[in-house]
């Protein structure tokens, strides 16, 4: 199921073809083995409090949200081989093409929402 993810605070669309990873195997695999994300694509992982970039070949942007879908941490251009910190308050992680967080103006404290894409 593809999702549309919107930054309600900024009125911007972060992705219109975001895949949902809501069980252990898709969360474990993440984007490993996936080619670079195109504009509008992404991966929403739930639950997720931290990500790694082991086995990745390209940088991505990552936003972590709490239970209320408020952004609690941002990573712009997380590089291959790197990892995020562990965010105990996080419930969701949204992986996006590098540059998406900047181009949409997404900041800490913003509220995101998602629904099934049309």
CATH architecture: Sandwich
Q: Any idea of the CATH class? A: Mainly Beta
Number of strands: 7
Q: What's the assembly state of these chains?
A: single chain
Q: Output the radius of gyration.
A: 13 Å
| Structural class by helix and strand composition | mainly beta
Compute the number of structural domains.
1
What is the percentage of strand-forming residues? 35-45%
Low-confidence stretches: none
Helix run count: 2
End-to-end separation in angstroms reads 10 Å
Biggest β-sheet: count, sense, barrel? 7 strands, mixed
Helix content: under 10%
- The helix/strand series, from N terminus to C terminus, equals EEHEEEEHE
Task: Fill in the CATH topology.
Answer: Jelly Rolls
CATH superfamily: Protein of unknown function DUF192
Write a brief structural summary:
The protein is mainly beta and 118 residues long. The chain contains two helices and seven strands, in the order ββαββββαβ.
Can you tell me about this structure?
The protein is built from two helices and seven strands, in the order E-E-H-E-E-E-E-H-E. The chain has 118 residues and is mainly β. The protein has one domain: Protein of unknown function DUF192 (Jelly Rolls, Sandwich). 34% of the residues are buried.
């Amino acid at each position: 199921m593809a999702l549309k993810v919107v930054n309600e605070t900024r009125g911007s669309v972060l992705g219109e073809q975001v895949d949902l990873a809501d069980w252990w195997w898709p969360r474990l695999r993440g984007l490993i083995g996936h080619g670079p994300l195109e504009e509008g694509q992404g991966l929403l992982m739930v639950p997720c409090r931290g990500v790694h970039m082991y086995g990745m070949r390209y940088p991505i942007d990552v936003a972590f949200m709490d239970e209320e879908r408020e952004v609690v941490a941002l990573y712009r251009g997380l590089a291959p081989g790197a990892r995020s910190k562990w965010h105990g308050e996080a419930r969701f992680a949204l992986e996006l093409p590098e540059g998406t967080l900047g181009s949409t103006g997404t900041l800490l404290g913003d509220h995101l929402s998602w629904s099934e894409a049309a």
